[in-house]
Amino acid sequence: MKRFLGIFLVLAILLTPVSALADYDYNSIPSPNVIVVDGDDPGVVFYEKNADQKVYPASTTKIMTTLIALEKGNLDDSFMVGEEVLGTTIKFTSYSSLMGIQPGETLTLRDLVYGLMLVSGNDAGEAIAKHVAGSIDAFVALMNQKAAELGMTNTHYTNPHGVQNEDHYTTARDMAKLMAYALKNETFLEIASTKTYTVPANNVRATELNLVNTDRLLNAVEGDPVQTVYPYAIGGKTGDTDDAGKCLVCAAEKDGARVIYASFGDKAELYNGDKVTTNLSRFVNAAKVFEYVFDNNFQKVTAAELGLQKTFTTGVVGAEESDLADGQLTMSALLDNVAVRALPDQISYYKSNAGSITANVVLTTDAQAPITAGQSMGSVEYKIGDKVVCTAPLVADFAVDKVLGVESLQPQETAVVSVSPDSTPLIDKGHKDWEAGDYLTLTFVLLIVLLIALVVIFVLSERKRRYERKRRSARAKKRRPY
After folding, report:
1. For 2, 391, 431, 456, which has the most beta carbons within 10 A of its beta carbon?
2. Is 120 a catalytic residue?
3. Is residue 122 part of a domain?
4. Rg of the chain on CA atoms, in Å
């Protein structure tokens, strides 16, 4: 009966119509420690409950461990792990959250970081710490140093994985600060958003390790009574110990706006004793909060309302001139479904300064024939100053055939062009790079010119010599006696 009531509670939360979220009650979230903040500025708080109360972070600790590994280590390093994967201060048991590696295995730091974040491997955490810092204690010192740098004033670490320790603690607010910092690291985002990862077999372990992310906002699990996947989720980290309860620090992004949700202390007694509901509610609550905040705390403006530049041009190497428009290929930014979501003040600023938005074109495809209509050419990044407003895909407007007999050029570096609203959006005014045939033709012409010059010089020299001989002959006749 209790389990039925718990599942009913989750279903009631999940199936609440989006239109009803305007009256969403944050206090309906049973979690004792919660904070919801702007992902770009954790100082902007949308909701908080006991956010500065001491909590145990459990495996959400691994967000910090991952960041230290990324900042201090090299993901391509390959090395042999030792007895540390069995646990240094506390020996790991079958109840521990493990990646599944054994002493003597040779792995990359990348493999271990994925094992740490996706399946929450405590064994990976210890191996990372020893490799990056030389010892667990030295690595923990780096963790605490970073926490101090980030203003996590109520956080203290004693290990790299979150195994329960009275002196290993944090707060919901501190973890939101940490996540906001982590989101700025593109490699962290790539790892945190990965659904599955495969670690190859080696000389010690004969089978692959197939790692599946425990973040149910990203991955559905067969048998769950409710749908937990949220389409705008971009990554997070779960945690779970008897003392910490069910924990979650996660983020979502919609139309460029980011939101962070952190909750700690979910325990079965808060959900009528049902363990399934206790486990899933953190994901259900996070998804509902994300959608509410995106719809109610942020505003949206479309690309059309901002009047963003849509058409761009570029020269094309080796193209049939008849295919081009005034010698250029026109390209269009796909802006129909592009919108910008931000806090109200930011949206007002974008609208009032729309004329200052610049378009930075990045060509990821060589501008050389042949090109097909609709072919992806790259992207356009729209900015005000250093602030990225939004990005859009860039495609070719029409097909361009290749001139017969013209060989393809070697791949060139990506072209990046900054275009302001008042400038002419030309990337290349028909400039043509010289090919081998061009150089041969030039060389041949120069040789002909040189040959002609030599002939002229020879003829002139001969004429001069003949003239000199005639003069000498004439003088000799005058001096000859009769």
Report:
1. 391
2. yes
3. yes
4. 34
Of these residues, 2, 31, 54, 62, which one is catalytic? Answer: 62
Question: pTM value?
Answer: 0.79
Among candidate residues 2, 19, 28, 59, the one labeled active-site is 59
Residue among 170, 169, 146, 96 nearest 126 (CA):
96
**Phi, psi for residue 46 in degrees, rounded to 5:** -90, -30
Please tell me whether residues 289 and 312 are part of one structural domain. Answer: no
How many angstroms from the chain centroid is the CA of residue 466? 82
Residues 258, 306, single domain; the answer is no
Residue 236 in any domain: the answer is: yes
Domain final position from 378, 393, 419: 419
Annotation says 420 is catalytic: no
- Based on the residue annotation, tell me whether 62 is a catalytic residue of this protein: yes
Q: How far apart are CA 316 and CA 312, in angstroms?
A: 13
The more confident residue out of 405 and 33 is 33
Residue 177 lies inside a defined structural domain of this protein: yes
Arithmetic mean of pLDDT, 437-456: 68
Render 269-306 in DSSP notation, one character per residue. Answer: GGGTT-HHHHHHHHHHHHHHHHHHHHHHT-EEEEHHHH
Per-residue buried b or exposed e for 196-231, using 16+ beta carbons within 10 Å of the residue's own CB = ebebeebeebeeebebebbbbbbeeeeeeebebebe
- Which pLDDT value is given to residue 375? 94
Q: Do residues 286 and 250 make contact, with C-beta atoms less than 8 angstroms apart? A: yes
* The pair of three-digit structure tokens given for residue 241, joined into one six-digit string: 């110990």
List the catalytic residue out of 120, 177, 263, 281: 120
Q: Is 290 exposed, middle or buried (0-12, 13-18, 19+ CB in 10 A)?
A: buried
Residues 310 and 293 in one domain: no
